[in-house]
Every structure is written in C-alpha cells, then in structure tokens.
From TrEMBL:
Gene3D superfamilies: Tetratricopeptide repeat domain. The keyword Glycosyltransferase does not apply. This is Uncharacterized protein. PROSITE patterns: TPR. The keyword DNA damage does not apply. TPR repeats lie at residues 35-68, 110-143, 376-409, 417-450. Keywords: TPR repeat.
Length: 629
C-alpha cells in the first residue's frame, strides 16, 4: 500500500514540475478538458432531444478547441434536427477541411444539400433549390438522383436547353440507356411545344437570347424522333417509346395531308412549310422527301430538290424495323423518286442552259440519262447543249439516239437536219465535195422544206460535175423561195440553164417534176408534224408549229418558243373540281406525285376526246429558249 502511494506522489510531482517549466501546456490541457466536458454535455443533450442546448455545448467546445472534427460533426447533426441546413453544411465543410482524407464527410454534406434543395423545391424556390442540388451533384457526381433533382428545378424554371445539356453529358459519360434516350426525346418535344405555345414573340426572344442554338431548336422534333428510335434499339419493347413514336408519325401524316391540300390549291410556299413540319416529325419517310423534292423543283430550288430526292431513294423500302412501331413500306415511291430526280436534273439543266452554262447543263443531263436512258427528250436536250458548244459529232449522236427511240418525232428531224447541214458546210470548206453532198442530202431528207440545204447541195454537185442534180436543186431553191434574190442563188440557176430566161426555166418539164416531188416531200413532212401535234407526245416544251414554210426556212433555223408550262398542282385542282371526295383522297395518298412525273412510254390515244381528257406530262425542252442553230 505504501509503495503505491509513494509512486502516485512521485507522478504528481513530475506533472507539477512539467507544468511549472511549460505553463502553455497547462493551458492547453485545461482547455481540452473543458472542451471535452462541453462536448459530453452536448451528447447528453442530443440524447434528450435538447438540440438547442446541444448546439450551445458543441459551440463552446469548438470555441475552446477549434481543430476537433467531431465537435463540428455533432453540431452539424444537431443543426439538421432543427432543419438548419445552411449551418449544418458549414460545419461539415469545416470537417472536410480538417480531415480531407475522410470520404464520409463530403457524402454527408451532399446529402445535406439534397435535403436543403428538396425543402426549397417544395416551397417553390426553384432557383435556390437548383443551387443546392447542383452543390450536391458536384460533391457526388456519380449519383444520378441529385442530377435528376437539378433537372426538375430547370424544368420548373423553363430552362429546357440546360436540361438538354445535362442529359447530353450523361449520355457521353455513361452507357446510353433507353430511359435516357426517352428522357431526352421528351425534352426535345417540350422545347417544340414551347415554340408552338409562345408563337412569334417567343421566336423573336429566342433568336435574340439563343442565337447560337437556333439550328438546334429548329430540329427538336427530328432529334426527338431519332432519340426514340435509339431507345427502341436499346429496348425494343419500350411501350413509352412506341407510344411517343406513334404520336410523332400521326402528327407527321397530318402535316403531310395539309401540305397536299395546299399544293392542290397552288400555294406551294405554304405546302413547303407543312411538309417541312412533317419531315421534322418523321424524317425517314421517303414519301415526304419525295413530295418536298417535287415542291423544290417547282420552286426552282434544284439543289434542295436533288438532296431530298436522294433521301427519298435512301429511305425507299427501308421502313421501320420490326418492334419499332408502325411498319412503313415506301417501296412504291421508288419509281416516283427516280422519275422526279430525272425531271429535276433536266429542269436544272434548262436553268443552266438559259444562262449559257452549257457545260454544266451537259453534266446534269449526263446524270439524268444515267438514271433514265429511255427518254428521247433527254438526248435531244443534251444534243442541244453539244450543239451550242460546237460539238457537232456528239450532238448528232444524241439526236440519232433520240430518233431510234422516237423515229416519228419531227422535232428530232429538224435538229438532225441542222447538224447535217453544219457538217456538210464543214466538208465543203475542206473541199470534200462528195461527203458534203451526202451530208446536205441527209439534211434534206430530214427537213425537205429548207431552201438553203438545196442551195448548198447544188454548189457541191457543181464542184463534182453532177450538173443534173445541181439543176434540180437550183430549181428547188427557186420553188421554195420564189422571192429570194440572193446573188449566189439566181446566177447559179441561170448559169445551169444558159440561154434560157427564168420564166422558161421554171415552166420546163424538169421544173414541173421537181415541183411535184418537192410538194410530196413537204406534204409528207407536214403530215408527220400534224400527227405529232395531235398525239401531243412528250416534249420538254411545246415547240410550236413544226412545219416551216419556204419563206421562213433558212440556214439559221430556229425553234419557236412555247407558252408557259402548266404546273401539276393547277391541273390537279381542275380535276378535283369535277371529281368526288374519294378521288381526292386517292390523290392525297400519292397520286399527286405519281402524276407529276413524266409518262416514259406514252400510250397512243385513239380519240380526240380521250386526248382532251387525259393530258400527258409535258417535258420541258431547250428549244423554248431558242437555239441559234
């Protein structure tokens, strides 16, 4: 017993000696002891739910010893019981600063921010709640519920673009899921609804505040459609995605029907706006691209038309995958898309031709012929382009190809005649008189009513010594152009009949036989031309009168320009005035686009009444601009 007491006295003496040597250490021990006392008192108050008293005790302890983490943690918990989230958050921040290696404190702080944000959200203070949820998400970025609450605040504030940015970040950081795609699709739909609800005033504000996002905003429904398809790819049985996709397709079809009605009334601009809306809702429908491509062609926006028709080709027959909603079969539009693309290339070529861009027009016609080699009009047009560029051989090859397809077309005959005459003059200048005569003969066979062809051949015959042929051709010139007093024609005729007057020459038996033969040839040509006029076969532009009188024919033979082309929409309007509602419904389903294409193999009509009732598509032709042939 005594040694133990002696030892105790020895320890006390040691402590006293230490405190005398270091008085600061004595103060620290006293403060620590007092702080620990207040801390224990606070714990007791916490157990008795006396949170105010507990906070007071913990505060005294912190005042005495400010570097003890547990004091801050316990005071923060007391603040939480009193719903003082801001004070609790400050205490946990201090704890995180003192012990940064402890991961439990940041997570608890994030939860406090979440609780604070939820209370603020319930009070309708969305901006303050957004700040709290954002702080929680920053402390725990992998925990999605915090981000979802931030999005709820943004949605309540109408900040859909910020919501969209959040979802985009999730899709980039994580493996995409069907739910995320559906969520983004709904955001796109909400943005579109905001545009429709707010109208033009919203549009003006949007362009002022979100000028960098205009393109994104204008394609919200397209993005919505693609997100739903992505969701169905991840989860084909998603009923929510299927329902939304069905809704989009129904809205697209309604816009398409409205576009058809506008087009039937001739309001192409309004029809274009409607079909643009339809394509926003369903951008993979070939029929919609085909319809818009046709409208662009009518509005002479050929580049846009070609792009849309290319999309129609891409989506024709593709439809929707099984399990992704309503099955769509656009394969019946493939032929229409082919036809419209050919017509667009042709019209674009005409546009270039009118501006003397002959090479560009030739390239466009090359593309049209690649897609459709059975239309003689395309070869005629390309021949006209070659003719303007002085490529006689290529022009003749195209005209002859067109003639093989349509051997009775006098429009092609006229062009072939011009080319052969040009080639004959070239051979004549090269002193190749035999070949020149053959070329002039070919020109005459195609177009027997042009006096200059006979005059040129007569000169070639004279050079060859074929005087009888030269005499007949010289008489033919006089018959076709009795008032022609050209110095090169009349002297030639008199020199071939020396010693005879002009009256005697024109009344001789040779002249009479020439007149009869020439009359038969011209009548046969006029008969063929009149048949073409009655049948009204395909032509890029109605050429006017095919036959040329002897007084109008000449070496610089020109086609007459035609009147304005009637648009397809105006034709359909005229038809709808006499048809019932059933026919109109058929037109809306696709008949309008089918009738807009060319009749590649026109049927020969048997009666004038049938011709008047059903007008075939009238191709446009470069002759409408007047070729200086």
């Amino acid at each position: 017993m005594f040694p133990r007491q002696k030892m105790s006295l020895s320890v006390d003496d040691t402590v006293k000696k230490t405190l005398k040597k270091n008085p600061d250490l004595s103060a620290q021990l006293i403060l620590k002891e007092k702080a620990e006392m207040h801390y224990k008192a606070g714990i007791v108050s916490m157990s008795q739910s006396q949170f105010d008293n507990a906070i007071s005790c913990f505060s005294k302890a912190i005042l005495l010893v400010s570097h003890q983490t547990q004091y801050y943690v316990q005071r923060a918990e007391a603040y939480l019981h009193l719903c003082d989230f801001q004070s609790a958050a400050l205490d946990y921040k201090c704890a995180c600063r003192i012990e940064p290696q402890t991961h439990a404190y940041p997570q608890r702080l994030a939860f406090i921010y979440y609780l604070q944000g939820q209370c603020l959200f319930d009070l309708g203070k969305f901006m303050e709640a957004l700040e709290s949820f954002t702080n929680a998400a920053e402390l725990k970025p992998d925990y999605q519920p915090y981000h979802m609450r931030s999005m709820a605040c943004l949605t309540a504030l109408g900040r859909y673009f910020d919501c969209l940015r959040l979802v985009n970040n999730w899709l980039e950081m994580k493996d995409p899921s069907a739910d995320l795609f559906i969520l983004r699709a709904r955001l796109h739909h909400q943005l579109n609804q905001a545009r429709l609800d707010d109208g033009s005033s919203f549009e003006a504000t949007r362009r002022k505040l979100f000028s960098s996002k205009i393109e994104l905003y204008d394609s919200q429904m397209t993005n919505c459609y693609h997100d739903l398809r992505s969701a169905l790819t991840s989860k084909p049985s998603s009923l929510e995605a299927l329902e939304l996709l069905k809704m989009l397709k129904e809205a697209a079809e309604e816009c398409h029907q409205n576009a058809v009605e506008k087009a039937l009334k001739g309001d192409l601009s309004a029809a274009l706006r409607k079909i643009n809306c339809a394509l926003e809702y369903n951008p993979r429908r070939a029929q919609y691209h085909l319809f818009r491509g046709t409208l662009y062609r009518r509005l002479k926006d050929f580049t846009a038309a070609i792009e849309d028709l290319a999309h129609a080709f891409e989506f024709c027959g593709v439809g929707e995958e099984s399990g992704q909603g309503i099955a769509e079969d656009d394969s019946e539009d493939l032929e229409d898309a082919q036809t419209q693309l050919v017509l667009t290339y042709n019209d674009f070529a005409m546009h270039c031709f009118s501006r003397r861009l002959y090479k560009e027009a030739t390239l466009l016609l090359n593309k049209a012929i690649e897609k459709h080699r059975d239309a003689s009009e395309l070869f005629v047009n390309r021949g006209d382009c070659f003719l303007k560029q002085g490529e006689w051989t290529f022009a003749l090859a195209d005209y002859e190809q067109a003639e093989e397809m349509d051997p009775d077309n006098t429009i092609i005959w006229l062009r072939c005649a011009v080319i052969y005459n040009k080639l004959g003059l070239h051979c004549y200048e090269s002193k190749n008189y035999l070949e020149a005569a053959d070329k002039f003969s070919a020109a005459i066979n195609y177009d027997p009513g042009v006096a200059q062809y006979y005059a040129n051949r007569a000169k070639a015959f004279c050079k060859m010594g074929k005087m009888e042929g030269a005499k007949e051709d010289a008489i033919s010139v006089r018959v076709l152009e009795p008032n022609n007093e050209q110095a090169s024609v009349l002297p030639l005729l008199l020199s071939l009949f020396p010693g005879f007057s002009l009256n005697v020459i024109m009344t001789c038996s040779t002249a009479q036989s020439v007149k009869d033969l020439l009359k038969n040839k011209i009548e046969a040509f006029d008969l063929a031309a009149s048949k073409m006029s009655r049948i009204d076969q395909m032509a890029l532009v109605k050429e006017g009168s095919i036959s040329q009188s002897s007084s109008q024919a000449g070496p610089e033979h020109k086609m007459k320009p035609s009147g304005t082309i009637e648009t397809m929409q105006s034709k359909l309007v005229a038809e709808n005035q006499s048809l019932n509602q059933a026919v109109k419904r058929v037109l809306q389903q696709r008949q309008s686009l089918q009738h807009d294409g060319p009749c590649l193999a026109p049927a020969h009509l048997d009666s004038e009444e049938h011709i008047a009732h059903k007008q075939p598509y009238v191709w446009r032709k470069f002759g409408s601009f007047g070729l200086n042939l």
